[in-house]
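Researcher: Last one for today. Full complex below.
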Amino acid sequence: AQSVTQPDIHITVSEGASLELRCNYSYGATPYLFWYVQSPGQGLQLLLKYFSGDTLVQGIKGFEAEFKRSQSSFNLRKPSVHWSDAAEYFCAVGARGGADGLTFGKGTHLIIQP
Amino acid sequence: DADVTQTPRNRITKTGKRIMLECSQTKGHDRMYWYRQDPGLGLRLIYYSFDVKDINKGEISDGYSVSRQAQAKFSLSLESAIPNQTALYFCATSEQHNSPLHFGNGTRLTVT
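Model: Here's the assembly. Have a good evening.
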């Protein structure tokens, strides 16, 4: 079965600084990969996804992520964060041809300092 | 209107009570899911359904049951609620196998 690790429970970044959130997955083949964002009191919103092809994927709100097969990673980046980016971020993996439903990491809570 | 609607948004119930959480969708997706979110644990899959005749257990199905009344409706039941079922519950839909999930806004359930 697949699994996802988000090593950082909390990250604090100054407004305007760059951001990288880490995600490592465990799966025997190339998985489907996703990043979701959850604002307080809200459901999860899809930021971006990787299925195949170009390993650098662009998402909404200025986010991007890079799939690195050799490192089993799918890190999320943003060059300059805004106060509105403060939220919980989840990495998720789906198995090709396997059981349905995504497996989520435990989340990273992003705090933005003024 | 939201594409995936969960009712109620909040519910407080007592140990031993039966409770049902409801989910309806207007996206026309066949696949529907129930997840549970606990602080520090992320989201865990409870049940999922491909259509009204196809129900599958997820990672943590014990203590829960589901009903797929129609393509657009998928309800989650707790037959006898217990305090460790206090959590935020999300319904989601998807178009096909492991395609992106579309989430409702969640139901916050407290079992006292």
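The first strand of chain B starts at residue 4 and ends at 7. The radius of gyration of chain B is 13 Å.
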